[in-house]
Design brief:
Length: 68
């Protein structure tokens, strides 16, 4: 999804994969989109071109809790 705009380390990719392993596909897509949204905002304000673990943490914390 990040294409050529953002780079992502193997460590960050592994953390995302492990965290999203048990998620529904729709939830996974939404979380990945939020990760890229946060990376894009940092790109606008700071010029960063990396997806970071902080982007992942913020995206996961902003996700709605799973239904019971």
């Amino acid at each position: 999804m990040a294409g050529d705009t953002f780079s992502i380390s193997r460590h960050t990719t592994d953390c995302v994969a492990k965290t999203l392993h048990a998620q529904f596909l729709l939830d996974t897509d939404a979380v990945l989109q939020r990760i890229l949204d946060f990376a894009a905002l940092r790109n606008l304000y700071e010029g960063s071109t990396n997806v970071t673990l902080d982007d992942v943490r913020v995206a996961l914390c902003s996700a709605a809790p799973p239904p019971r």
